[in-house]
Amino acid sequence: MRLFQRRKAGKASSILAVVTAFTLLLSACSSGSESTSSSGESGAGEKTTLKVEIFDRGNTPAGYTISDSYLTRFIQEKFGDPNNIDVQFVPVPRSEEVQKLNVLMASGSEVPDIVFTYDSGTFNRYAEQGGLTELTDLINQSGPNLKKFLGDETLAYGQYDGQQFAIPGKRLVLGKYASYVRQDWLDALGLPSPETAEELHTTLKAFKEKDPGKVGTGLIPMGMSIASAQYEPLIWSFIEPLTEEQKYTLTQQLGSNDYPTLLPGFKDALKYMNTLYNEGLMSKDFGLDKDKKKLWEDVSNGKVGFYTEDAGEIYISGTYKNLQTNQPGAVMTPIDAFKNSEGKFAKPAYAPNAMYVMIPKSSKNAEAAMKYLDWMASGNNLFDLQFGVENENYELVDGVPLIKDDASPEIAGRIYNSGDIAIIVNGKYVGEDKKNEEAYVVQVESKYRDDMRKSVAISNTDTIQPVRFSKPIDAEARYGNGLKDKFMEFFVKTTISKPADFEATYDSMMKDYMASGGQAILDERTEAYKAMK
After folding, report:
1. H-helix or E-strand containing 354?
2. Tens of pLDDT along 284-294?
3. Is 273 helix (H, G, I), strand (E, B) or coil?
4. pTM for the complete prediction?
5. Neighbouring C-beta atoms of residue 274, cutoff 10 Å
6. Distance (Å, rounded) from C-alpha 271 to C-alpha 499?
7. What is the edge-to-edge ordering of all strands in the sheet holding 353-358?
């Protein structure tokens, strides 16, 4: 089974490993309603079937499924029915999105008409190998509202080799991470909020030894998973000041993130993690927690004293509400906990584009797909998808929708995954920048808004900007997915190794990482830097 026709002779596809079982499974997930047409044209009485990818995060509220919810029905009613289009949503697990998307792309016939990823290497690879529809004419003909909404600067992030192969979402919130600590535990022990890794180590040991929350054997001083939000703020605080050359040559972009594997200080960060783990100060089985479900469960049940997370996620996801329900009196405060050698709370920031929304070359419904994205950018559609129903989900105050605290779980659940539905934007879009910022903060219950605002401010403090060349690094697209797995293995194995084995484990994992593509990326980035200079 062929993935797609190559755009350049001699370029071997890296995604030809097609697993039939996965394909059949994902096909079954997407066949909730009968397709009446596979054509991009819709005649009288003949419906076009438009298949759209959707992330499944495993958090769908009762009464809905990931592919049949208030928002999917809204889309069918407001867009599908008037255009004689049957919109079907194809679930893809968020924690395995690149792997599953590769399987779908390889299947050809089963791939949705609209797919997306945050992974720039995956986008570049699909574009280079000829797997995507070139979108310039489609945008000009069928996407005037979309083009105006995104603007040329954002659209440029979806170009490869001068051609438009993706619709990049507009990212409104660039800050990534904040840390959170059990303030009631600190108060009980008379401790200040930690501001450095050394101070945090002292705090975590006090949590373990004195157990201020009376948790018992289930106590987890620092919550951890293998999601980037849990380890990136810590690791980057150990990175030493870099020259321009080091930033460009030693940084490795794998997917949507810059990885510090080769940067000075990385080894020290892993050594610190190893110390915490061997002293029993962090989640024991963090290496098995890919989607943060176990971490969120532990935080909600009052077991965790400190952790780092996506800014505001603790309030948006309901984790903090669950904690205070399960542990009355529990207080978790947003803090900046990792000051580096320069006295800065350095942490990565997002690039100004969000996910890459793509139409596979094999799609027969490219025009309908573009119409769908343009519809999302038209009128009040994006607003309604993000905020729900006025006076039920929100109240409009000075042009900013404030979530209603008294909304029932059923009503609040309408828009639980609006961020994965409204794929042309990341953040809350109202119009003006200040209103967008405020809308992002006030999407949570009023009692959490001060902390929400603080967490967002922390995420925007001393940010490290992504390092990008003017053209993609081919080796990053070729080896990126595999190296992300290698990095996770590197991170986990060095952390859980016995202290006496740390050096040998580190050296072995670094050798494996470099041999698996790390050296090729280093070489190409070094040459690209020379050419840039």
Report:
1. strand 353-358
2. 999 999 889 99
3. helix
4. 0.82
5. 20
6. 9
7. 115-117, 353-358, 167-171, 425-426
